[in-house]
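TA notes, week 10

Several of you asked for a full example with nothing omitted. So below is the full record: structure tokens for the whole chain, then the designed sequence directly under it. When grading your own attempts, check the secondary structure regions first.
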């Protein structure tokens, strides 16, 4: 007998409830509600100033909302002491928009840094794990001994992703993973995100303006605007909604009314 999964059967790994955030008189979030499900690729979009980056910072415990609650992996972030917060952070990986790599360390040292900080593994084993994570992102072995200043933009994104994966996270946050990349490099990141989700069962949350990335990898997308959630659903569902904050992503010279067939075919290969 076939069983059909319902929303009640799907585990929620991030639960954002009535979150409000203000910077002085400026309202960034006004009672935002959303959930992220285990194993999905969930994207957050919106115009500049819509509060995407602020929400990311709140989810990774770099900032607290003024009111409401955020539960991550079953834990209320507001109720954590510093030791508990540190333990939870080790279950997350974060790829920051600018990479966040240390220029004085080579790529192997950058990727191995979380392992040195949070484990008691032998340094030689840490180097082996770092090299494996680097290869997992598609970088050549010789990249291990290079420094961030010696890498291209696409290579830096992959190296930053390798470091985000160092502690085998359950939850991966990607901040503008394809920004500043040429189309070929960006397409490689698209495929890598899907590969990592499928290979390790990761739950991935990403902030992005890249419409091709959204169409090709996102299971669901939330659109933020005017401090509120303006829409949430698959890209196909959002493309049929009439709200102005949503329509701007699908209309006009730079919009995408539907995913190009060639792009869909490439992802399936």
């Amino acid at each position: 007998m076939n069983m059909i999964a319902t929303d009640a059967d799907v585990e929620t790994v991030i639960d954002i409830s009535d979150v409000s955030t203000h910077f002085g008189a400026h309202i960034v979030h006004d009672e935002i509600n959303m959930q992220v499900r285990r194993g999905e690729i969930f994207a957050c979009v919106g115009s500049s100033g819509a509060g995407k980056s602020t929400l990311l910072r709140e989810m990774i415990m770099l900032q607290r909302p003024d009111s409401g609650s955020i539960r991550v992996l079953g834990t209320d972030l507001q109720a954590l002491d510093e030791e508990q917060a540190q333990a939870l952070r080790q279950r997350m990986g974060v790829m920051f928009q600018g990479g966040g790599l240390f220029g004085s360390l080579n790529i192997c040292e950058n990727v191995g840094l979380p392992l040195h900080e949070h484990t008691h593994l032998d340094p030689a084993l840490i180097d082996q794990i770092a090299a494996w994570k680097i290869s997992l992102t598609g970088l050549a072995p010789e990249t291990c001994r290079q420094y961030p200043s010696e890498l291209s933009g696409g290579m830096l994104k992959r190296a930053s992703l390798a470091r985000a994966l160092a502690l085998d996270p359950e939850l991966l946050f990607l901040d503008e993973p394809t920004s500043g990349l040429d189309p070929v490099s960006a397409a490689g990141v698209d495929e890598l995100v899907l590969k990592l989700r499928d290979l390790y069962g990761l739950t991935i949350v990403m902030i992005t303006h890249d419409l091709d990335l959204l169409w090709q990898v996102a299971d669901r997308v939330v659109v933020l605007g005017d401090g509120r959630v303006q829409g949430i659903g698959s890209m196909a569902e959002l493309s049929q909604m009439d709200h102005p904050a949503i329509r701007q992503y699908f209309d006009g010279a730079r919009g995408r009314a539907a995913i190009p067939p060639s792009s869909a075919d490439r992802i399936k290969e």
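The radius of gyration is 19 Å. Use that as a sanity check on your answer.
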